[in-house]
Amino acid sequence: MQVSSSADDSRQSGFGRRRQRLSDAETEQRMLRSAADAVAATGLTVSLDHIRLEDVIRDAGVSRSTVYRRWPNKDLFLGDLLLDLARANAPKSATGSKEITELVRRSVLARLDAIRSPIDRLQLAAELVRDTGQQDFQHINESREWRTYLALTVTFIGLPPGDLRDQIQEVLAESERAFTARIAASHRTIADLLGLRLRAGIDVTFETVGHLANAMMRGLIVKALATPSIATERVAGDLYGATGDWSLASLGLISVVMTYLEPDPDVTWDDKRVTQLRQQLEETDDLFE
């Protein structure tokens, strides 16, 4: 490939002759960030054919010759971009732990003196699962970053065997492990707050619950892309004493989570416990850290 002159570089990138020379590492970072911004603006399709290397060079404000020295062809650049997107768009806590903390804090404090019985605590747990599930679904459904991540998983499946595929699989697997661990920790936290435990007689863990909840929510998100009415559909009813209109996400999540929770017989729910819980809720900034 013929390398253009410095004058041509200035003309192609839109910068003057006095542009500061960037290191190869700085050029690489600018190119990847510029391309990632383009993906964020339009969303990732199953391919990256809509990403034009010349457009990225222009938007990044870098030297054409440096770019083509680092990536002699577009496929090499797109491979690095896929890896960068996989790392940057790893699934995160959907609505954020602080937002969920506020929801849990308000709900539990409002009912703290009325949840003395195990049945009352199961009802409150169901309400929290319902409300947090819908909040998470809405956030994910509207998140371009999440759609990019989902598209990345589809793109990964279509990659030919080789080092790039192996590297992206490793990044995605680590992202999934971390995300599932966060889901498991959040359900464990709510169970501990309300004196609940995993049901006896079946060898499941909170990580098991996290995997199932993650898969259920992701499946609904994918279905909602083709059938948007899924996001707004509601079912009226009473589950575990929690009455109201249930979204499909909330119904799915409660069918997973509440199936495996029961009151912990070793927990004594007395005035001391209520006082400690009130203090924890009022003084802890983030219950899920």
TrEMBL record:
<feature type="region of interest" description="Disordered">
    <location>
        <begin position="1"/>
        <end position="28"/>
    </location>
</feature>
<dbReference type="InterPro" id="IPR009057">
    <property type="entry name" value="Homeodomain-like_sf"/>
</dbReference>
<dbReference type="GO" id="GO:0003677">
    <property type="term" value="F:DNA binding"/>
</dbReference>
<feature type="DNA-binding region" description="H-T-H motif">
    <location>
        <begin position="52"/>
        <end position="71"/>
    </location>
</feature>
<keyword id="KW-0238">DNA-binding</keyword>
<dbReference type="InterPro" id="IPR001647">
    <property type="entry name" value="HTH_TetR"/>
</dbReference>
<protein>
    <recommendedName>
        <fullName>HTH tetR-type domain-containing protein</fullName>
    </recommendedName>
</protein>
<feature type="domain" description="HTH tetR-type">
    <location>
        <begin position="25"/>
        <end position="89"/>
    </location>
</feature>
